[in-house]
Amino acid sequence: MKADSDPVPPGFERHFRKSPVTDPWEPLFVRQDGGTFSLGLRIAAAHSNARGLLHGGVISALADNAMGLACVMQMERSSALTVSLSVDFLSIGRIGQWLEVRAVPAKLGRTLAFADARIEADREMIAKAAATFRIVEVASKAT
């Protein structure tokens, strides 16, 4: 099992976008490589289920986040609302492993976007995901 002090893989930096749903899972890291947007974290107890394994809800939420961001960043748009999300769980993640969610836009339209993700724990594929997003412009808040 790896310690929390293990280094973050090269190319990752702290996540630039905060969200109340992911705040308890910090620190989160991001990396962009061409059209691929990756989210990463070191799996800890806060990410696990009662058996001490990575919780499927964490995988689902991070895959949704990464795929939506991959689409809006490539489209240079402000927001994506999830229309559908599909996750196939193939294996398990354990505390101490490096979790990486690699998201790639599959098709970008004017109002809909589609993306796929590969989820790995220490470079072993543990899940895959696909999503459809409604692309929207978010108006700035009035002061």
Automatic annotation (TrEMBL):
Thioesterase domain ranges (all copies)? 52-124
Q: What is its EC number?
A: 3.1.2.20
- Write the record's keywords in alphabetical order, separated by commas: Hydrolase
Question: Which reaction is catalysed here?
Answer: a long-chain fatty acyl-CoA + H2O = a long-chain fatty acid + CoA + H(+); a medium-chain fatty acyl-CoA + H2O = a medium-chain fatty acid + CoA + H(+); a fatty acyl-CoA + H2O = a fatty acid + CoA + H(+)
The UniProt family comment states: Belongs to the YigI thioesterase family.
Can you name this protein? Answer: Medium/long-chain acyl-CoA thioesterase YigI
